[in-house]
Amino acid sequence: MRVVVAAFIIIILGSLLLLMASEMPTFGDPDNPSNNQVSQRYSRDIIRDTNIPNVITGIITDYRAYDTLGEATVLFAGIAAVLTVLGSHVNAGRKRGQDDG
Q1: 8 A C-beta contact, residue 46 and residue 58
Q2: Is the pTM of this model over 0.85?
Q3: Residue 62 CB burial class (10 angstroms; 0-12, 13-18, ≥19)
Q4: In angstroms, rounded to a whole number, what is the distance separating the alpha carbons of residues 57 and 47?
Q5: How do residues 36-80 score in pLDDT, each as one tens digit?
Q6: Segment (H or E) for 20
């Protein structure tokens, strides 16, 4: 019974994904939502606005600086949490090793 239910769910989800993929705009079409005024403005005015010749670097460090700062904060918080957990585990092992010796 589980296999039938799982197969049914997979078929439904697969059908939905294929239906959504068929509704996507064609690749390279100038009327795509990805080809809007914002990307054209970034490409046209990046050097004048940011004085950075690399478009990607200019977008990340200037136009989207707060977003990038938020992403970096989340990454550093995750790293700090992992190091804290690993550090407490290592310290607990050291304390047990000292008591045994």
Answers
A1: yes
A2: no
A3: middle
A4: 11
A5: 788 788 888 888 988 888 888 888 888 888 888 999 999 999 999
A6: helix 2-22
